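tool_call predict_complex ligand=beta-D-glucopyranose
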Amino acid sequence: MKSQKILGIDIGGSGIKGAPVDSKNGKILESRFRIETPDPSSPKDITEAVVQVIKHFKWKGPVGCGFPGVIQKGFVRTAANVDKSWIDTNINKLLSDSTKLPVFAINDADAAGLAEMKFGAGKDKKGVVLLLTIGTGIGTVLFSNGKLVPNLEMGHIELHGMDAEKQCSDAVRKELVLSWEEWGKKFNEYLLTMQALLWPDLIILGGGASKKTDKFLEFLKVKVKIVPAKLLNEAGLVGAALAAKSQYEQEKKSGKSKSKSKSKSKSKSKSKSKSKSKSKSKSKSNPEPKPKSKSKSKSKSKSKSKSNPEPKPKLKPKSKSKPEPEPKLKPKSNSKSEPKPKPKPKPKSKPKTK
Ligand code: BGC
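tool_result ok
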């Protein structure tokens, strides 16, 4: 199959890594290429870094990208460890337009989870599996009988009145120069909370710290079984490639069926379908990555950074697409809880009072 080889890219808080992946067996096909995450880690700068990775491999096919934030239908919803201007950017479109390749983004921890469940420590594991990636942030991934619950942001739960991630990520361990014991005990408190809330059957520890589990496993005192991830730091890019493969294939399929049904409905009622199909293609919240964007959107986003030509999701009224506040102290509530427009009583005869 042609689309078996996918370029996997893992955008992290400190580095951006890439490698071509055989999505059939999760094998990395060429040595990994890594560059430092740019500062600022704005859409423009990260896009440039991604382009660099693609150029390095002279890549021509589909690309999967792990990103350290919530991704819903191609839109970034949170950005705890990257520039906040990412929020509400259509990352799929931005990267596809800039690279002229089909690029599909997924939350970085979800990507790592997918890879671990398919090829690593979670392989064939049923029940509830919680995978934690311990790096710049804490990524949390939950599987129920092998099925992913996406965009879980439990790294941001409150622990002693503070964002848990700010107390026990690997970055914090390094920053505060904590001994493994000190850090391990802190992390254990976090694990106890995870256990109390989720009661998984298995916890897999991934991310940067997964290479050093022998240094801190003895300080972890939860009842749930804990194992280190097997794919270590490569899980992110392997999983990003896996996710891209299935999205790419889905798009190809739905692209075909859409064009079929479009031509059918066109011939049925000409006048109606004309306006309908127009508004449909305009307001699509999950646009297929097309190499060219319309200049219209570019000229509109004057005040935005050049590299982020993506307008806000068109389906939503402005008030709805308001960026969610960064989850600091609570578990992230996803965009289901985006502010609802307040029902305004319509004054019938009087002019507006407010
Ligand atoms: C982000 C998550 C991400 C995790 C690991 C957290 O700060 O909120 O979306 O998966 O870091 O990078």
